[in-house]
Amino acid sequence: MGRYPLRSFRMNQTPAIALHDVSKRFGATHAVRGISFTVERGGICGFLGPNGAGKSTSIRMIMSIILPDEGRIEVLGGNALDAKDRIGYLPEERGLYRTMRVAEFLRFMAALKGLDRATADRRIGEWLERLELPSVSRKRCMELSKGMQQKVQLIASVVHEPQLLILDEPFSGLDPVNTRVLTREILGLRERGATILFSTHQMRTAEDLCDRVLLIHRGEKLLDETLPSIHRRFDPRTVLAEPAGDQATAQGAIAALAGVSECVWSDEARALIIRIDDHGDPQHAMQQMLAATPLRRIELRRVTLDDVFVRLVGGDASVLEAQEANGD
Amino acid sequence: MTESTSVRRTCVVAWRDFRHTVLTKGFIIGALVLPAIMFLVIPLIPMLTQSTPKPLVGRVVVIDERGGMATAFDLALHSKESAAKRNQRDFLGGPLEVQVTVERMSDHAQEAALRSQVADGELVALVIAQHDDDGERAEVLVPSASSPRHTRHVESAAREAVIRSRTLDAGEDYDRLRSIMRNDRVEVSRISPRGEQAPESAVMRMLVPGGFMMLLWITIFTSANNLLTSTIEEKSSRVIEVLLSAVNPLELLVGKLLGQAGVSLVMLAMYGGVGIAALGAMAMLDVVPISHILWFAVWFPIGYFMVAAIMVSVGSAVTELREAQSLIAPVMIALMVPLMLWLPIIENPNGPLATAFSFIPPASPFVNVLRLTAATEPVPLWESLLAVVVAIVSVMVLLWAGARIFRVGVLMQGKTPTPRELLRWVWMR
User: Fold this and answer.
1) What does the pLDDT look like over B290-326, one tens digit per residue?
2) Inter-chain residue contact B247 with A112, CB threshold 8 Å
3) Closest approach of A132 to chain B, Cα-based (Å)
4) Which of A13, A186, A212, B61 has its CA 20 to 30 A from that of B176?
């Protein structure tokens, strides 16, 4: 991050983003309800939530594209309007000027962010090369495939080497190859010191990338923790056990143990999936299982963000339907 | 954010909008190439009209049973008035040289043969004089290949010959009567309340205000329409949110307004240049006094920002051009007023109609230009200045409201807002 070294040094004490009791309504809809959180500098923060949770509204308020009805927002130590040149933003509803040529569009975006022509051209060339788009600079934006357009949009958001990068659903519509390219670049930007806030409802992606997770639902914050803390807090209560002998005998023996609320065979895992009830101690239960029946393998299943998500948001049929509709 | 940052962003937006309007094929062909061709061709017109037309050489036969028509035709063809007429330069060319002999036939015996000669181009014309109770009349036959200028000259001589013949029949002296009836003895001038006298020209009185108003209308409306369509395109292609991540809505709005103002100025320079070149070529630059140009310079920016503010706010509120039609309809009606009432306004520039519309936006810039350039009667200065003040206040209000609608509208998707909702957006936080 070479563009604002002095300011960065002085302002490193302030969080990259700080929201204090922020609310936003659109008519009768309460999109965001009194949300507060801070995103410290450096690292990747996942902004999770089901469709319609208020993620994009919150991001738009962080970008000062819309103003909150209540509360206060600080970005890079001040107002986002004052820091636009230090923020990169990839909105969920992405667009390009259809008839503009790729290099011309990127030069325009770079100029808006204060880059001179020579620097912009150099960085655009580097980024096009890095994102495997070397031959598209003279093409018109409308001639590109959706994946290519998405990469061009990403370049537009990072060409000025922002201190804070906000990505709203960056992986939506990308094929696995491009998802991998984008993941690599996001991690690269983190390595170079940028703070990244990205919203998604793809829990696996968030789990792979994020140092920290913010989960909102119906405009309210449900979770704001680092991944290790989430793993600790959402204590795993599911055990996988592979019987050494007869499967039915082992299943019967384990199901009869105190503290086991459920024991079923999974062809996929090729093991018994055993659920420990809320009052049981998983370590103690595992010792009991080993004593009750011969087992080839026994392990505590690691909690996933999917599990956490379903546990916190679960039971809301509309959310689950939305997730299914999106193929997540 | 420093002021220079804001100015820089605004300029970047303005330059993109300007460049991507002016450097498109449609604009280059429609707005630049055609006027440029006219610009080059107009000065050539006087040179072209200096070309000498083909001389009128040959024989004209007049079948004239009573006698007198042939002589009258010969006189008419070679009279001073006729010479003056044919020496006039007009759009058909320079002076016409005439070397024609007139022959008289006293009967119709050879009429069929003479008609054939006309058809073959051996005769310049055949004039058949006839006499009835109303007096002399004539039929003129010319070859089909006869040029319009030749035909007009022969026809004119035949008309004069008929009148001369009728005058003689009435026992009058044709040349004396003609001298009495010369109509160049009347000159109409206009005299202002300050006693200034100027020659009257009804055509110019109508064309000059109309020309100024159309120039204003076309340059403003084209750019304002560009603003409407480009804003809708940015919204529908979802590029607007990308832009708003880099600039604030006000910078975007001002940048777009300035960019299209540049487009408007380019068009004004081209069309205005063509107009001035045309007037210069016709030695008529005096019909556009400097005061007209100064008033135009005052009303052009006012008119542009007035219409542009309306168009850009409507563009920001809709996602398709079709949806814009209903919101724009009232504005279009107001903009059509000067086009529809052009003649009544210049006929009576201080009448209640013209005065009322001088203060009603968005018609006021166009109506004021019409009034101020109409030569009929001067508009009181205080009234013109008051109209300017009212219009500037209107522009400020429209820009303020436009900016507020734009800020909300650019992020709105879905159904087209009603005018009432647009008003609510103005007051929305």
Assistant:
1) 888 999 999 999 999 999 999 988 888 888 888 888 8
2) yes
3) 22
4) B61
Chain A CB contacts of B9 under 8 Å are: 112
Which of B242, B421, B428 to mutate to probe the A interface, most A CBs <10 Å? B242
Decide: B195 and B275 in contact? Cβ < 8 Å: no
Residues of B in contact with A69 (CB under 8 A): 429
Residues sharing a CB contact under 8 Å with residue A321, sequence separation 6 or more, in sequence order: none
pLDDT by residue (tens digit) across A32-51? 999 999 999 988 999 988 88
Local confidence band at A320 (pLDDT 50, 70, 90 cut-offs): very low
Nearest C-alpha in B relative to A69: B429
Residue A170: burial class (beta carbons within 10 Å; 0-12, 13-18, 19+):
buried
* All structural domains of chain A: 5-232 (3.40.50.300), 235-300 (3.30.70.100)
Closest CA to B310 of B331, B333, B296, B291: B331
Residue A69 in contact with partner chain B when CB distance is under 8 A:
yes
Is residue A314 predicted with pLDDT exceeding 80? no
Residue after which a domain boundary falls, among B175, B194, B229 = B175
**Residue B355 shares a structural domain with residue B282:** yes
Of A64, A84, A98, the CB nearest to B237: A98
B40 domain residue, yes or no: no
A156 touches chain B (CB under 8 A): yes
CB contacts under 8 A, B 222-251 vs A, are: 233-234, 237-248
Helical packing angle, B364-373 and B381-409, nearest 10°: 160
For residues B214 and B170, state if they share a domain: no
The Cα–Cα gap between A72 and B231 comes to 31
Q: Please check whether residues B117 and B220 belong to one and the same domain.
A: no
Question: Is B246 in Cβ contact with A112 (below 8 Å)?
Answer: yes
Q: At what angle do helices A146-158 and A102-112 cross, to 10 degrees?
A: 30
User: What's the gap between Cα A171 and its chain centre?
Assistant: 10
Q: CB contact, 8 Å: A84 with chain B?
A: yes
**How many of the other CB atoms lie within 10 Å of CB of B54?**
11
* Structural domain contains residue B52: no
**A55 in B contact zone (CB under 8 Å):** no
Q: Does any domain span residue B44?
A: no
Check whether residue B212 and residue B114 sit in a common domain.
no
